[in-house]
Design a protein that fits this description.
By secondary structure, the protein is of the alpha+beta class. It is 35% helix and 20% strand. The protein has an eight-stranded mixed beta sheet with strand order 7-13-12-11-8-9-10-14. Strands 18-17-20-21-15-16-19 form a seven-stranded mixed beta sheet, with helices on one face. The protein has a six-stranded mixed beta sheet with strand order 3-2-1-4-5-6, with helices on both faces. A hairpin with a 4-residue loop joins strand 11 and strand 12. Helix 6 runs antiparallel to helix 7 (184-194) and helix 15 (502-509) packs across helix 17. It is elongated.
């Protein structure tokens, strides 16, 4: 168990002949950098090799994710992120900072829509546990996780309806994003709506985002869930021992959760895990410890020796226990709740939480009672908190800002808490100077008329915008704060890489694999870091000699490259992968057509006019394709290419023998017309008909 991680468990859910179609994650704590570099690759082509340098790997994963067209969404607790978040997303997925209905948004759910590559059959993998989307949660802590696979025609109607309700709950809180059915949550929602249930399916006891409705007078929703789940799953057994494993306890020593469990459930005694830090200090309010030590039927406990060994706790490396487990055993059966619910009033009564109550395959116990009180106690002001509310963060306005790099459009609105308010907002530079002034926001998400060049400069290397403002009426000031922006269409956001030469771009068109593309990214980033003095000269390697040969030694290679590109674009268009089509037409990546157009005119390339002219005609041939005419910014680039072609044709750079101006003009008119004309091979039937 010491070698097992949530990453291993997650990847094991995806079969060898299955692919991820869409995925949604929920979390309390959110570390975008870890999610992008370590979790997203688990859902992509497993044959891809990434650099060990995180600066390079980030760009490689971003390009691989874009190429795969995999829709992803993350829901996280907005108030906690405002206090602790320092890194913004750096690639294409939707992220939603939200609040729970009553208190914290604390659930750790994973919904992965999976497709069999041979049969095309889809299924939904549902995971719930204790691990946040953080390096500690997925790699380091002692965590818990349970998985269920949902196939159409197999789940119980109750479980299916619970999942539908949870997805609807999240869908109601997705703001500032386009209503695209191709996004992750709508895809999963559509699958669940079309999924059929089974009357003979075994019950699945699931506690989810919509479970707060279970609350009754004097009984929290979680306690009612446990009572109902135990009654449904094991109605004939009594005399249970309950083990509670929770890293955090209620702030108030008067919390009486143990009494409620003893009264609600057929429990004889409760053993409560007492966590310790790496100084062997008990992580518990001492007054609370002493109160429960005197309570009837309650004992403090530590890991049982066998479990401690399996968890690797005998090694010098200290592993933080972050699992939340409610285990019931009686000598005959063993049932366990695995999820995100801490042993606190907020967690059991008010938070949005998630987890499963399921049977263990064999009898076991996790804990053994402590015989004596701890010798050392963690000072109360240093006790960790797990699901506390953040009232001071909630005082900031709920800003929903989005920037579309393809449309070059900033949009914004206020969240649900501010339905009757308006906010006048200024966007600031990192130094505090006003860059965009007097933006008026209300509840309706609307485009913002502003200088997008200034916005793009601020978003170039970050997903945060520094803002300040005031409410109207009343002019109550909003202090400066960082608002995370939902960035859309990352294919049109410039990469932080040196430009490729036209030859190198053409080589990519000619058929380089995604693996080779990753190698190109690594080489470019290494070169940039060496030039900046951030990497040693001997780090990395130059591309092999074959890639440095003169690509335009024969013009046939140029035409071959464009022919391959057009084939790929046509296939993407027919498969409705319009994001990839738009990337080539108007994107700002390392091998998009606008990047190629720009590179043709870089002085350092020293390309002759004939090569540039032929490349421009190839570009025009793509841009004037009828199916691409309505795509964003196509007309702009088509006119630019035509203007550059006209400039070459009227210059003296390309001349015919004899240097006759009129003859040269007629030649260009003839050559351009036939070059751009679409030809096709005649079939045998057409050949005979012509005869």
């Amino acid at each position: 168990m010491e070698l097992s991680t949530i990453s291993d468990s997650f990847r094991a859910q995806i079969g060898e002949y299955e692919r991820v179609v869409a995925a949604v994650f929920t979390t309390y704590r959110f570390e975008p950098e870890f999610f992008e570099q370590e979790i997203i690759p688990l859902m992509l082509d497993q044959g891809l090799a990434y650099s060990s340098d995180q600066r390079i790997k980030s760009i490689q994963v971003r390009e691989a994710l874009s190429n795969a067209g995999l829709p992803l969404e993350v829901f996280y607790d907005i108030d906690l992120f405002r206090q602790q978040g320092t890194v913004s997303p750096s690639m294409e997925y939707l992220h939603h900072g939200i609040r729970g209905e009553r208190s914290a948004f604390h659930a750790k759910l994973v919904l992965v829509l999976i497709e069999d590559v041979d049969s095309g059959e889809q299924s939904l993998c549902v995971g719930a546990g204790s691990a946040n989307l953080t390096i500690a949660g997925w790699w380091e802590n002692i965590e818990c996780q349970h998985w269920e696979r949902v196939y159409s025609g197999q789940p119980s109607l109750r479980f299916l309806n619970q999942l539908r309700a949870d997805v609807a709950w999240m869908a109601a809180r997705r703001k500032a994003v386009p209503g695209d059915s191709g996004n992750a949550l709508p895809r999963i929602q559509a699958y669940l709506e079309n999924c059929r249930s089974s009357k003979s399916a075994p019950p699945v006891s699931y506690y989810g985002l919509s479970s707060l409705a279970l609350a009754q007078q004097n009984r929290s929703p979680f306690r009612r869930f446990l009572r109902d789940a135990l009654t449904a799953q094991s109605p004939h057994y009594q005399n249970w021992t309950m083990e509670i494993i929770s890293p955090y306890f209620a702030e108030s020593p008067s919390f009486d959760g143990h009494d409620h469990f003893l009264n609600d459930l057929p429990i004889q005694e409760i053993h409560i895990f007492l966590p310790e830090n790496d100084q062997s200090e008990a992580l518990c309010n001492r007054e609370y410890y002493e109160r429960l030590e005197k309570a009837d039927g309650v004992s403090w406990a530590r890991w049982a020796p066998e479990i401690s060994k399996n968890l690797g706790l005998k090694t010098p490396v200290n592993r933080t226990t972050h699992a939340k487990i409610y285990h019931l055993y009686n000598g005959m059966q063993s049932w366990v709740f695995v999820g995100s619910v801490n042993f606190t009033h907020r967690a059991t009564s008010d938070n949005q939480e998630a987890g499963f109550f399921t049977q263990l395959p064999s009898q076991t116990r996790f804990l053994e009672p402590i015989k004596s009180a701890p010798e050392k106690w963690c000072p109360e002001d240093k006790l960790p908190g797990g699901d506390e509310a953040h009232e001071n963060a909630a005082e900031l306005p709920d800003l929903l800002l989005s920037y579309d790099w393809k449309q070059r459009q900033l949009s914004g609105s206020l969240g649900e808490r501010h339905t009757k308010k308006k906010l006048i907002l200024d966007i600031l530079s990192p130094e505090g100077a006003v860059r965009v002034a007097s933006i008026e926001l209300d509840h309706d998400h609307q485009p913002i008329d502003c200088d997008v060049e200034k916005v793009e400069a601020l978003l170039k290397n970050s997903g945060f915008l520094r803002v300040e403002g005031h409410w109207v009426p009343g002019r109550v000031a909003i202090p400066p704060s960082d608002a995370m922006v939902q960035q859309l269409n990352w294919t049109h956001k410039p990469l932080d890489l040196p430009h490729l030469t036209p030859q190198e771009i053409m080589q990519i068109y000619a058929g380089l694999s995604q693996m080779r593309r990753n190698q190109v990214i690594e080489f470019l980033k290494q070169r940039q870091l060496r030039e900046m003095g951030l990497m040693t000269e001997n780090a990395g390697s130059e591309p092999n000699e074959a890639t440095e040969r003169q690509f335009f030694a024969e013009y046939a290679e140029l035409f071959h490259a464009f022919r391959n590109l057009r084939r790929r674009m046509d296939e993407a268009f027919s498969e409705e992968r319009l994001g990839l089509v738009d990337y080539y037409l108007s994107g700002r990546g390392m091998d998009s057509l606008p990047t190629l157009l720009e590179s043709l005119y870089e002085e350092s390339q020293g390309l002759d006019e004939v090569t540039i002219y032929l490349a421009l005609l190839c570009l025009i041939q793509i841009y004037q394709h009828p199916e691409y005419q309505k795509r964003p910014q196509v007309d702009h680039y088509l006119q630019e290419c035509r203007s550059k072609v006209a400039s070459i044709e009227t210059s003296k750079e390309i001349r015919l023998i004899g240097n006759d101006t009129e003859r040269t003009r007629r030649f260009f008119d003839w050559y351009r017309a036939h070059f751009l004309r679409e030809y096709r091979t005649r079939s045998d039937e057409e050949e005979h008909a012509a005869d």
